[in-house]
Amino acid sequence: MIQTPYLLFLGDAPDALSAKVAQGIKDWRPENAVGQFRMKGCGTTVGLTDMTLQEGLDAGAKTLVIGVANRGGVISAAWTKVLVEALEMGYDIASGLHNLLRDENEIQRAAKVHGGTLHDVRIPSVAYPIANGVKRTGKRCLAVGTDCSVGKMYTGLCMDAEMLKRGMKSTFRPTGQTGILITGGGVPLDAVIADFMAGAVEYLTPDNDDDHWDHIEGQGSLYHVSYSGVTMALIHGGQPDALVLCHEPTRKHMRGLPDYQQPSLEELRDTALLMARVANPACQVTGISINTQHMAEDEARAYIKEVEDRMGLPTTDPFRFGAERLVDALEAL
Amino acid sequence: MIQTPYLLFLGDAPDALSAKVAQGIKDWRPENAVGQFRMKGCGTTVGLTDMTLQEGLDAGAKTLVIGVANRGGVISAAWTKVLVEALEMGYDIASGLHNLLRDENEIQRAAKVHGGTLHDVRIPSVAYPIANGVKRTGKRCLAVGTDCSVGKMYTGLCMDAEMLKRGMKSTFRPTGQTGILITGGGVPLDAVIADFMAGAVEYLTPDNDDDHWDHIEGQGSLYHVSYSGVTMALIHGGQPDALVLCHEPTRKHMRGLPDYQQPSLEELRDTALLMARVANPACQVTGISINTQHMAEDEARAYIKEVEDRMGLPTTDPFRFGAERLVDALEAL
């Protein structure tokens, strides 16, 4: 686990898009961030108080979190200077960058000398077991998509937030680096060795109270040939009681695969349920989450209504219109 | 690729079962082995000429292949002495052991000094790409099982051998360490990082002549919750034109999962075909391979006939009764 609260490092982020990890933390776990640290040339903000490293420490920050993508995949000399200074002052550092903190000599050395921990959350830090398939207590909901990047993480976060608002027992279980940085822990599933994928998901969602819900972050798609194996491991390791189907209606083809079309929601429903019932025969499809970010509000509402009428399942864009009905369906299970 | 031919190291193998890698090489690629090397205390043979390391070299051997499992997972001092001597004489060494050759200091040092290559075939040696899903030329057959360890590798090897006997163009494509040691190359799929599984299978089975068949070694099962993600990556990365269903009828439950039953052959047929057609809409189920090793001959023949009548597909135990009919079905495609 990454120690909270964080100071969010925005570095010299040129725009909002490059700071989406920091924005995710601000949106979903504002209590995890005491402020933001911006360098000269930073062209964006996530709306938190600007702080120096010392002010962050004084406000209680334990970890400096890289909340921004690095340009050209290089950790610059200017960044390194700040990160080394943070380690000298007693911070840990957490990063989801492709380039690892531990591969930067100066940063690695400063961490050793000053006893700071470097969290490279793209790399598993645990030797996960092989899945044993034993039925676990507690309830689990998994978001599955017609494609990659259709809003599975946001769907899980929205449902978790709605449950907590209702006083229900709920935990969001991240399986990617953004989710891990938001919550402070999880499994970077796409970096796990093949034999241990399903076991890593079992590890991520252990036995729990009978009325507790885990919202497992989905990855890939059963219909995305590059990543379907990761999705399958989530379905079998996760033993979901409930599946929420996620869809982005404006996609022209499968992400990165111009020769492949998205499946229909009916196909996804039938296939995902078939596979999920191998691990949990009681599994149900309980709702549909539509990512309407590229649609006007009228168009979005009309599309959602059409899907709901056709599929006979509670349908919404939980980020835009609220997750109430998706959570109602889980409460009714 | 591992340099052939091999000298097969049987070490102090107590019995035939512990020497099954060597036996596989002897059975399937006898031209790859000049002889066997046995130590004091070896209680088995694979029926090749016993040779010293020098005799192996004189017969042309390039690589000493560990054809045996090591007791208790430890590479003993007695083994190390032989392996170091082999490196000093100019051998490469190949191993599928869990303990890596490269982690043994003396062996690693001898390899460096004498310029020998250590092949730890459980560990990928290639940075595989992410799968791009682009349709490849040539034909591919994938064995899929109702469970793990039901004879998928032997099915592929039998079909490959039958095709070569007929003068057809055919290659067996190993995805596990035994197959890799038998043929000298392949992808250790269960050790590949999740994101690159399907890409590793694409890499393993590249474009080929239109009338060439790849027989891709299957792994796991869509119905085995510990390993189903690996199977899915094979189905989508492999883009099979033909699926052969593999089944072991005497299994009481899924291997290692006492609470899980095997699916029926009908369920496996429908599910595997559904998923395979995402990557290759023309895919067909062309035959059924029954592993009858625990059945008397009468019982085996009766069972095979029952399955063939029920499923309407060519059915046999290719290792016991020949792969002719399975290959006929591929020729007829």
From TrEMBL, chains A, B:
The D-glutamate N-acetyltransferase-like N-terminal domain extends over 49-124
What organism does the record attribute this protein to?
A: Litoreibacter arenae DSM 19593
Q: Which SUPFAM superfamilies does the entry link to?
A: P-loop containing nucleoside triphosphate hydrolases
- A Pfam family (short name) is DUF1611
Q: Which InterPro entries match?
A: DgcN-like, DgcN-like_C, DgcN-like_N, P-loop_NTPase
Which domain of life, per UniProt?
Bacteria
List residues of the D-glutamate N-acetyltransferase-like C-terminal domain.
Answer: 130-327
Matching entries from PANTHER family are given as: DUF1611 DOMAIN-CONTAINING PROTEIN, GLL3100 PROTEIN
Q: What is this protein called?
A: EBNA-1 nuclear protein
Q: Which Gene3D superfamilies match?
A: NAD(P)-binding Rossmann-like Domain (3.40.50.720), P-loop containing nucleotide triphosphate hydrolases (3.40.50.300)
